[in-house]
Amino acid sequence: MTLPDGLAAALARFARLGTVLVSTDYDGVVAPIVSDPAAAFPLPGTVAALEALAALPGVTVALVSGRDRATLGRLSGVADPIVTVGSHGAEWAEGFEGALSPGLAELRATVLSDLAAIAGRFPGAAVEPKPLGGALHVRNVVDPSHAAPALEEARRGPAALPGVHATDGKAVLELAVLETSKGRALTALRERCAARAVLYLGDDVTDEKAFAVLTDAEDVSVKVGDGATAARFRIDGPADARAVFEELLALRRA
Asked: Which EC numbers characterise this protein's activity in its record (predicted)?
């Protein structure tokens, strides 16, 4: 698979730097998008390339996902030294950026209850509970014309509650009772490993906050799939993402 010329050149420059952070979203990049989120497993070969990169001197590898860390670890199968950051950048190995007070825990319960009520009115819609809130998935609604109304009902309802933070994704609306940001997570990871530059691949609207913080000349931001983006480069899908990691591995080893 041939990568776009500009991306290939950027990877070559990135590979020559001393200390780097190689980071990526999970769904839609490492794992293809599937109808059942619980069955989203990595594309063969992708995790092997990431593990090989993580074993090289000066390379930190991180998965930054909207999933909770436990689910991310179970589906991806990755382990140390690969870093996993869940809940859109809020959930780390040492815990959450902020603890849920009793009031926030009650708000989370209200969000989940309201989302469940909405899903019940739109057959095929599903609610995914998350540590900081929940997500309304409409990819599998029986009547595709009901997807947008279901999401809009969630925006007008639980998403509008004081203290609730909404994040739009592809056929999903995620609600959290603490503000989350993949961009803030990447900034923290960059500082932790003293990276000269950061590579990040993402496919969803939620990844735009990550792309927005990659402003250094040697940073490499890659949008996977279609849609408007602030990323500098674009590739088609998970197979291309695997090719990016394999190319970087070969360059770094050379």
From this structure: 3.1.3.12
Domains 5-97+181-253 and 102-176 fall in the same CATH topology = no
Residue 164 token pair: 């609730």
25 is catalytic: yes
Pick 94 or 177 by higher pLDDT: 177
Domain boundary assignment for the chain: 5-97+181-253, 102-176
Choose, from 25, 68, 203, 219, the residue flagged as catalytic.
25
Nearest 5°: phi and psi at 165?
-110, 125
- Segment 15-33 mean pLDDT: 97
**What fold does the segment set 102-176 form as a domain?**
Alpha-Beta Plaits (3.30.70)
**pTM tops 0.90, yes or no:** no
- Tokens 């730097």 label which residue? 17
pLDDT tens, position by position, 126-148: 999 988 899 999 999 999 999 99
**Least confident residue range of 13-22, 70-79, 102-111, 177-186:** 177-186
The CATH-assigned architecture of domain 5-97+181-253 is: 3-Layer(aba) Sandwich (3.40)
Is the distance from CB of 149 to CB of 122 less than 8 angstroms? yes
